[in-house]
Amino acid sequence: xxxxxxxxxxxxxxxxxxxxxxxxxxxxxxxxxxxxxxxxxxxxxxxxxxxxxxxxxxxxxxxxxxxxxxxxxxxxxxxxxxxxxxxxxxxxxxxxxxxxxxxxxxxxxxxxxxxxxxxxxxxxxxxxxxxxxxxxxxxxxxxxxxxxxxxxxxxxxxxxxxxxxxxxxxxxxxxxxxxxxxxxxxxxxxxxxxxxxxxxxxxxxxxxxxxxxxxxxxxxxxxxxxxxxxxxxxxxxxxxxxxxxxxxxxxxxxxxxxxxxxxxxxxxxxxxxxxxxxxxxxxxxxxxxxxxxxxxxxxxxxxxxxxxxxxxxxxxxxxxxxxxxxxxxxxxxxxxxxxxxxxxxxxx
Amino acid sequence: xxxxxxxxxxxxxxxxxxxxxxxxxxxxxxxxxxxxxxxxxxxxxxxxxxxxxxxxxxxxxxxxxxxxxxxxxxxxxxxxxxxxxxxxxxxxxxxxxxxxxxxxxxxxxxxxxxxxxxxxxxxxxxxxxxxxxxxxxxxxxxxxxxxxxxxxxxxxxxxxxxxxxx
Lengths: 348, 166
What we know:
Chain A has helices spanning about 1-10, 15-45, 60-70, 80-100, 115-125, 125-140, 140-175, 180-185, 200-225, 235-240, 250-275, 290-310, 320-345, and strands at about 105, 110. Chain A is mostly helical. Chain A has a two-stranded antiparallel sheet with strand order 1-2. In chain A, helix 9 runs antiparallel to helix 13. Chain A is globular and about 65 Å long. Chain A starts with a helix and ends with a helix. The model of chain A has no long low-confidence stretch (mean pLDDT about 80). Chain B is an all-alpha fold. In chain B, about 75% of the residues lie in helices and about 0% in strands. Chain B has helices at about 5-25, 30-50, 50-75, 90-110, 125-135, 140-160. The chains are: A mainly alpha, B mainly alpha.
């Protein structure tokens, strides 16, 4: 991708600016689609129809929403800390957008082909925690502060199961670079890490239970990391109004929303790249190539986005103690067993 | 100036400016948040030195761990914006003496050190090398560090979960 841009534009800093902006071209339309999807899926699950008047079956509703958000007055509470209040939404979005730098969208495009890809994503997304704490504190509102505190505690504790389940996939593939991880799983769905990777049959069968468990745990912990139901305690409407973004309106609120949806896709993208073959075709050579690769990546990613919406509108919210119990006493011990077993099988 | 120099000065400026806010800000929460940019700038400088593993670890440990802890502490102590934490200058003379001595020592070391420069190309994949070193040459320090962390963890759990007996 960078070679092509360099041929077109010469060797200048512009090449890298364009390369860095490409994921944004995906995230913005994706967020529009997902806002509509969220409303439609939730409505059909509850036997409603949702928007019907703006365009065919309400497909233009996200556009109307954006126009509304642009027109809204951008209010800042009088007793808020103005500087931090303004800075917080950008910090939250920066944290999730920076994560996209190491996501391989196709065999031809990855923002930054660094060796420590997944490790970098785990580290840089912690910027979002700081942004949430900043938003909660700067609003000078008890609900916001409680929401931010809950959110930070939740994200910090769920970082452990996330990192451990990433480690299981990394042990099998032997690389932290998501592009290499994806190449490792090339050649059809039976080569995906969730099915044991392209290893000899006996090893695959032995690995299968452990990779399946850690795959599900990665997805669960990922949902917790992005604060969505059943882990949406930081925004629990019935207790905290809207959590850390209670005081936000207009475009600042829209940026929080964009960051949430970007995070939803980021989690799906990590799950897909590590366990489900990333941009590789499920049928081996059939329908493979850079463009089909992008198609498969987005298709798999959107499936998990749909799963997250589905779960959101199906399950009730956990209590704080149940949340911590799940992380420390269920997910983490299971993953320790998985790591030990996978290491044992790979070495012996 | 080439691109490298521009990026270096940008990160150096971020680090120093944020550090100045940490020291001079009267608002303790602003100081804590400014630390974020200081840590971030240092991570950027590590990247420029081709120490990518160190840079990412810096982000993970300092931003993701220590800073969150600091913010928790600061936010719970000064809960609202209206309550000002008192920050004033006391004991100016001893402070000046100590700072001068420290600065003098650091500058002296900086000038007298024979800085090694190398023209070897930097190692591309640092993580495998670091992992190998940790499990061979530096196994003992690595294990001691993990035991120290375990002790701290057990201690924290002991303090937090002490049962109230009548």
